[in-house]
Amino acid sequence: MARKKIALIGGGQIGGVLAQLIAMRQLGDVVMYDIVEDLPQGKTLDIAEAARVDGFDVSVTGTNSYKDIAGSDLVIVTAGLPRKPGMSRDDLLTTNAKIIKAVAEGVKEYAPNSIVMIISNPLDAMVTLFKKVSGFPANRVLGQAGVLDSSRFATFIAWELGVSVKDVNAMVLGGHGDTMVPLVRYANVNGIPAMEMLERKYKDKAKAVEVMNAMVERTKMAGGEVVKLLKTGSAFYSPASSAVAMAQSILLDEKRLFPACALLNGEFGINGYYVGVTTVLGANGVERVVELSLSAEEQAALDNSVNAVKKLVEDMERLGF
Ligand code: APR
Asked: Whole-model pTM?
C-alpha cells in the first residue's frame, strides 16, 4: 500500500512539531509549505536527519510551491499570524482571512481530494472561510480545537484528583474562545463522575463545585496562560499533538470519537455554522456528528458560544470575506 501524504501549510512553531510527530509515528510522507523562503526546507531537513536515530522511513520535505502538495490525503493548516501589540481583533481577522483564502485556493487547485484540518486562529471563522473558498464538502473540512481544550481540562482534573490523566475523560464543546463549554457533567475518571470524586475528596459539595469551576475557568483561559509565560508566541506542542491524534484517526480510519470543529446541519439545534462538537473521525474525515443530551444550562452555554461564532463570522463577512 502506498504511503499516505500529509501536507502541512505553515512551517512555524506548530508546523515543526506536527512534522516531527507525524514522522515519528510514520503516518505518511510529509510536505511542509511556507511562504518564507528556505524555512520549510531547513526545518524538514533537520527533522529528516533524525530518521536514523528515531527509526522512521517516511520522507519529510519542505517547499515554497503549492504544486508540491499534489496528491495529499490530508492537509493541516497552521498558516497565519499571531496577534501583535496594537493590532485590533478586526486587523487580525483580516490578516488571517487573507492568508486562509490564499491557502484554500492553493489547496483547491493542487490537492482537491484532500481532507483539510485547520488550526489557524480565530479557528471557527477560519474553518468557515476555508470551506466557503474551497467549496469542499463539509466532511472534508474540519478544525482542531476541542481535542486540545479537552486535553487541558483532563490534565487539570488529573492533577486535582491525583490520578493518571490516561484515565480521565473530559469533553469541551463550542467555539474555540472564551465561550467554550467544558462539560462538567460528562467529565469522569474511568466512568466515575469527576464531581463525585471531588465531593469525596473535599467532603463538601460547595467546595467541590468551587474547585471544578476554577478548573473550568482555567481551561477556558489555558491558551492565554501559555502566551503570558512564553511572551513571544502561543502554545505549539499541545496543539500539534492534538492535531496528530485527529490526523491518525483519519489516516488509519480509527473512527475515534473526538470533539472537532464541524459544520452543523441541525445537530445540537445549530444550523449552518462551524462549531466544536462530538464527531467520529475516519477515512472520510468527519464521518458523523454524535449528538448527546445537554441540560438546559449546558445548551444555553453552547448557544451562547454559537452566538460568539456567529458574530465572528459576521465580522469576517463585513470585512469582505
Ligand atoms: N501561506 C503559508 N504560510 C504562511 C502564510 C501563507 N500565506 N502566511 C504566514 N505563513 C506562515 C508563517 O511564515 C509562519 O511560519 O505561517 C507560520 C505560522 O507559524 P507561527 O507564527 O510560528 O505560529 P504557530 O505557533 O505555528 O501557530 C499557527 O495556529 O494555534 C494557531 O493561533 C495560532 O493562528 C496561529 C496558528
From this structure: 0.97
